Amino acid sequence: MAKFELKLPKMGESVAEATITNWLKEVGDTIEEDEAVLEIATDKVDSEVPSEVEGTLVEMLFSPDDVVKVGQTIAIIETDGDAPAAAPTTSSEDKEQEPASAQDAQNRVTEAREAVVSQNYSTSDRFYSPLVKSIAKEENIGLEELESISGSGKENRVTKNDILDFVENRGKSSTASAPASKTSQNTSAPAKPAKPAATPVSVNGEDEVIEMTRMGKMISHHMVNSVQTSAHVQSFIEVDVTKIWNWRKRVKDEFQRKEGEKITFTPIFMEAVAKAIKDFPMINIALDGDKIIKRKNINLGMAAALPNGDLIVPVIKNADRLNLVGMSKAVNDLAGRARGGKLKPDDTQGGTYTVTNVGTFGSIMGTPIINQPQVAILALGAIRKVPAVVETPDGDFIGIRYKMFLSHSYDHRVVNGALGGQFVQRVAQYLESFDDSRTV
């Protein structure tokens, strides 16, 4: 018999950790190769971790709500083979030592599990959110210390700000009497601005208190961070999409019969955005401190609303290389898997520019928040049938046209009004010059 260490796999660019949400197997259960063992969640998407081997689950090293780093061992699976468990990373000094025995390896696993158990705070009668417990573990805050924190939340619950304030002030009292260093003599450090206190909310007996979803909390944090990071500016432009409307109406049945896909307006808009980005590549950038990162690939994020009201942004990689059929297949695939909760972590990574369709719910325009670390985002308004002045060689007349607004939000730290306005104008030009004679 051999023991295999199931590790948290790499889940895409910039994903360094995940939260365990649910174990699908119990200790003693038989596991098939490629069978899902547990469910995890990142700040982008939920996913499953499959087993790489066939065997029996003998140890679960983490509990639900625990945060695990990529590469950490999360479970031990006993196999029938004689292959050794995955070797731990060793230092140069360890290479000189004798190989560890099977008992030593088991002792290390047991110690690791005891370390995890000692930090899961499960013996406390007090409620702590997964986020608070995660911060406590990262900062090595023991249960006794955690119990001593005065909570400002409902029923004295410890909030994120409470524990961060505790970490910031931790140990200051013990060092206050220490002799001042040379650099601190006769000087005083500027006081940090006080964090604004949360406005207390009164709750009466008729109110319903609803806990935000995990993804909802992450979206909230991400949006607030974006507003605090980027100087948001908006430009708006109205577009005549009558030719696109009529073309889609004419070819949609043939398109579905020939390609096996529905043709919506979204891939047509995405095609125009990708073309405009190639014309204005400085909209396809990220800001890292004082350095501008100019992206080589054009990866379009496609904001999608989930059935529970949360938002997710799957990414169409190398969108400028796709024709309209390929774009339609990519849009339909990502949208379908997003609604069904089947996205993989890598499906939401690597976006360089985002498009959101606020017109889905009838809005004619919007002021979307930039999806960090990108520097711009485009909102598509609802397509409306409106009376409009139509110019012809024989004179102007009033006609029925299909029109929509494009709302462009951009980071004024690096995108000035000229670039932001010219970019959305170019998108509009591509849409209005759409070739309605093109075949499927």
From TrEMBL:
Key words of the record: Acyltransferase, Lipoyl, Transferase
Positions with biased composition (Low complexity): 172-202
MF (Gene Ontology): acyltransferase activity
Region feature (Disordered): 79-117, 170-202
Enzyme class label: transferase
UniProt cofactor(s): (R)-lipoate
EC number: 2.3.1.-
Domain Lipoyl-binding: 3-78
Domain Peripheral subunit-binding (PSBD): 127-167
Gene3D superfamilies per the UniProt record, alphabetical: 2.40.50.100, Chloramphenicol acetyltransferase-like domain, E3-binding domain
Assembly: Forms a 24-polypeptide structural core with octahedral symmetry.
Assigned protein family: Belongs to the 2-oxoacid dehydrogenase family.
PANTHER family tied to this protein: DIHYDROLIPOAMIDE ACETYLTRANSFERASE COMPONENT OF PYRUVATE DEHYDROGENASE COMPLEX (PTHR43178), LIPOAMIDE ACYLTRANSFERASE COMPONENT OF BRANCHED-CHAIN ALPHA-KETO ACID DEHYDROGENASE COMPLEX, MITOCHONDRIAL (PTHR43178:SF5)
Name of the protein in its database record: Dihydrolipoamide acetyltransferase component of pyruvate dehydrogenase complex
Organism of origin: Mesonia ostreae
